[in-house]
Amino acid sequence: MYQLVPPATRRGARGPAPFDRVNLRDVARQAGVSPATASRVFSGTTAVRAETRSRVLEAADQLGYVVNSLAQAMVGVRSRSLAVVAGS
Fold it and tell me: What share of the chain is helix, strand, coil (3-state, %, to 5)?
């Protein structure tokens, strides 16, 4: 039998994600590149051809994709945050 999936979610490699949020896979698909290549464009850690970079950035702009800075901070990319610990 068929399993009904609620319309507000879609199944991904890491579980359900809301339909209203654009993710990196959506941007990669729109640009015609792999998710790994799209990730390289946004992280800026490796060289990506200028043509490919512009396709990914254009796709992100069209879809309204915004990089999740909290997610980047959790995987080791600089968070640009400062923590202050003061003792009494």
Answer: 40, 10, 50
Q: 4, 8, 24: which is closest to 16 by C-alpha?
A: 8
Give which of 42, 31, 29, 30 is closest to 71, Cα–Cα.
42
**Two structure tokens written together for 21:** 């949020």
Closest C-alpha to 80, from 25, 72, 8, 88: 72
For residue 75, CA distances in Å to 12, 21, 33, 66, 79 come to 19, 20, 22, 17, 10
Stated pTM of the model: 0.61
At 13-27, the pLDDT tens digits run 555 555 567 889 999
Query: Tens digits of per-residue pLDDT, 33-67?
Result: 999 999 999 888 788 999 999 999 999 999 989 88
